[in-house]
């Protein structure tokens, strides 16, 4: 069944408003964020952020291959990180959320990724993205800040190890 064009258009028009709320009011956003409702809206948000990041990589001279690599890597990494966060939070720190709620956190924490391609600002964006993930993990898993930080750290370490296993260590 096809989605009506008006629904697609309204979802796309809502993205900048949603992006701004995530960036400016992460506590309020994650407090109000439903933990269920499907992966569609967070998935669209993630794809939009990854597409902007990919286009930015193209602009700075990474070429089409670099653009596509950045885009695909961000999407794959989000799914893997969400799965790892669930495993770590539930098995080590008594987290209460499942994959859907955790994926929602990871997808919305990708909001700063629209600037990952900007020299120097990309590092700040990456750190802010980690902060957003931390706040979201606290909320959906019911973790204290220390346990949420440990969940984030273990998840990032696993992702880094997986990246190195598939692509080799960074040069």
How would you characterize this protein structure?
The protein contains seven helices and no strands. By secondary structure, the chain is mainly α. The protein has one domain. Helix 3 runs parallel beside helix 5 and helix 4 packs across helix 5. The radius of gyration is 16 Å and the shape is globular. The relative contact order is 0.13. The model has no long low-confidence stretch (mean pLDDT 89).
Task: Write a concise keyword list for the protein shown above.
single chain, 171 residues, mainly alpha
Poorly predicted spans: none
Question: What would the principal axes of the Cα set say about the shape?
Answer: globular
How many beta-strand elements? 0
N-to-C SSE series?
HHHHHHH
Ordered list of secondary-structure elements with their pairings:
Layout: H1 5-24, H2 26-32, H3 40-59, H4 63-93, H5 99-108, H6 121-141, H7 145-167
Helix pairs in contact: 1-2, 2-6, 3-4, 3-5, 4-5, 4-7, 5-6, 6-7
Question: What's a concise summary of this model?
Answer:
The protein is mostly helical. It has seven helices and no strands. The chain has one domain (39-167).
